[in-house]
Amino acid sequence: MRAKLFTSLAIVLGLLVGLWLVRPPATRANGDKHEEKGGHAHVPAPLEYADGHVPLSVWTDPAMIARGKAIYTTRCAVCHGDQGDGKGPAGVALPLKPPDFRDKAGVAEMRDNYWFWRVSEGGQVEPFKGKGSAMPPWKSELSVEDRWAVIAYQHTYSGHNGAHVPWEHPESVAMGRDIFAMACVPCHGVAGKGDGSVGPMLAPRRAPQPRDFTSAEFKFRSTPSGQLPTTADLFRTLTEGVRSSGGPMTIGLRGQRIMPSFRHMPVEQRLEVLEYVKSLNRGFWERGAVKTVTVPAPPTLTPERLTRGKQLYADAECLACHGERGRGDGPSAPTLKDNRNLLIAATDMTRPERFKNGARPEDVYRTLVTGLAGTPMPSYADSLEPDQIWELVFYVLSFSSNGPRAEKATR
Amino acid sequence: MSTILAIVLTTVLGVSPTLADDVPISGTVKAVDVDARTLTLEVASKGKTQVVIVYMKAGATVVRFVRATEPEKTGFVEQSVPLSAVKAGWIVSATTKHEGDREVAEQVTIVVER
User: Which of A94, A214, A352, B77, by CA, is between 20 and 30 Å from A57?
Assistant: First the structure.
C-alpha cells in the first residue's frame, strides 16, 4: 500500500514538474497577465521633463480642450477608448493595458510633468519599455501645445474641474512629502519656509540660512536673475549639498558643508522630494517656458586675457567685497548683509573648494551671469560681454594657489 | 488510488488554464515575410528587448481599427488588411500560442501605423 502511495505521489510530482517545464519561457512574450492598471507607474518624470509643467490655464481652456479632443479622437481613442476607459478596440489585447482616465484616484496621482513625459516618449523609455508598453512616442508628431491640449482633454474624463496641480491633488506629491518630513524639516521647517528648529544653529545669527522654498529667491540657479531655478538646479544642490563653514550643528557634515549631500539617496527619491519642494511654490507652474543661461565655450587662457580680467575685477568693483587678493576681505566685506538682514561673508576666492555654486570654470561663469539671489552678489549678465565674463572667470580662478585643483573641483 | 487520481486530475485541470498559453504581446515590426507568413517583432519583456518571430496560422488575419464612416455609427470598425500591407516600424499586438518552438498567432492587430 505504501509503495503504491509513493508511486502515485511520484506520478503527481512528475506531472507537476513536467507541466512546469513545458511552461512557455519568460522570454517568449512581454505579456503580464496581472497588469490591470495600465501604463501608470509610480515613478517621477526624469530631469529633462521635470520642468515640463502644463500651464495652469490649459486645463480649463475650452479651445485647448477642443483641440485636444480632436487629436485624441483620431490618434488615441483606438487604444484608450472613446470613453477614456482604456478599452479602445486596439487596446484590449495589449499586454500593458492603457490607463482608465475615469479613475479619479489614479489620475490624481499622475503629476502633469509625468503625464507630459508619457505622451512625449510613450513606451520607448523605462520603466514602460520593459513592461511592454505599446504606447507610441508623440513628441515628433505633436507640438508641445498639442500635447498639452490632449492631456487637458484626457483630464476631463476624471471629472475634475480645475488645474491638475499638486495643491489640488496633494496625493501626487505624497511620497516626496514623506521624504521631506524625514530629511528636510529639521532645517527647512514643516512648511518649507526655512524656519526649522535646527536652522539657527547651523550658522548662528548670520547667513547662510536654510532656503525658504515658498519665496522666489533661490541662490543656485542656471536661470537668469530674478527667476526660479530649474529642477536640475535643485537636484544639483540636493545632490552636492552646500559648502560653507557653519556652526556646531555642521561639525558632522562632510567636506565643510552647511547642507549635507544627499547623493546617496536614490535618484527617484531625490526627484520625488523635489516635486514636493516645487509644490510649495506656485511660481514653478506660473513661469511658462524655462530659459537657462548659456555658457559658451571658453576662449584660450592667455596672459592678455588674465590682465584684462584683473582690470575687470577692479572696474566691476569685485574687490570691494572680495578684496584685492580675493580673500573675501574687501573694505565692504564686514558690512555685507543678505535679504534677511543677516551678516554674510564674501567668498574667499583662494578657497575654490568652498565655492557654494561650484568651482569649475563654467560654474563660476554661471554664477557671474545669474548672481546669487538674496545676497549682495549681483548678476553681470547685462554689464559684461561673454568674453569679458570669461576673462573675469580666469582671473577669479587665478587667486587659487592650487589652480589645477580649482578646475577639477566640483561642488 | 482513486483519491490520488482525482488530485492529479484536479491539479492538471486547475493548472491547464494558466498554461493555455494565450499570451498577449506587442512590439514594433522589424520585418515582414509574406511568403513565410511571419512577422518579426521587437518586443520588450522584463526590461530586456528581444526579437520574436510570430507565425501567422493558416487563415490568420491582420486587422486594423478605423472610424466608422456610416453617419449613424460613431465607434471603430474592424478592417482586414493583407500581411503585405504591414510595414516595418508599425506597432502591432497579437495573442500568440506556443506551438513547438514557434509563436503562432491567429490574429494580429495593428496598433499604430507610422
Answer: A214
